[in-house]
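Listing S7. Sequence submitted for prediction.
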Amino acid sequence: MARSGQSLTADQICALAATPGAADPGPLARLRVPRPVDRYDRVRELSRGRRVLDLGAYDETEVDNEHDTSWRWLHAEIASVAAECLGVDASEKVRVKGTVRTPCDTSIVYGTVEQLDRIVEDFKPDLIVAGELVEHTQDTLGWISRLAGITPGTRFVATTPNTTSVVNLLLALLGRESCHPDHLQVYSFRTLSTLSGRAPLHDITVRPYYYDPHLFRARVPRPAVPLVAGANLALRTLQYLFPLLSCGLILEGTLGPVPADRHLVAPRSGAEEVPTGSRTH
């Protein structure tokens, strides 16, 4: 249990969101944020030996076009260590073909996050990954809640850009922001934890990830590559020292509510303690 004035973990924020009438720690409560990690390395490690359903898996640069040697594709990273990997994507090319075979010897089938019932039932994943996807979908809470209902107990991982990223804070000084034109929302450490509780998920961690310049590096002249590397080193240092400045966030959790035999009673308004779900991180 965390007492008033102590730092909140993601799992505690998640449990607060899942508990009606729980004590509100206030909008400026201190947060206990882990050090950032490499997004690709972390998801690859979580996928090792598992049956992984990879949502939003299709990448035209990787599947259809030539790309720079610095390019990294999350689906390929997952496939390299998973016991089995199936991709799902709603892109038009996948819809037309029905199924796309990838260079890493996997299949990507057509599907939307709102209608995953049949795919989940047939594939029976023990890990579902949504890489850089939740910020694109119109009803993110809705489809994650549906997954929690049809496959409770399955592990879930989502990666997404971070609201308080140092890159956007710096760009804001120039009247700019880095934002994909298809993004409909952007999440912070706290809002992603709250989303998890509302879905619900349990046993969650929200872990920041470092900015990765692999996309940008391929677009600059070769003589400028060392400058990109130097700038990235400075950015990594800032992100390490101040994790909330990290480029993005990795949500790891278990779909569905806390099992009844482990459920904790949350305090009502005015109590000193906040619930922690089933554990803290």
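Caption to Listing S7: primary sequence and predicted structure tokens for the chain studied. The two ends are 12 Å apart (CA to CA). Residues 225-241 form the longest helix (17 residues).
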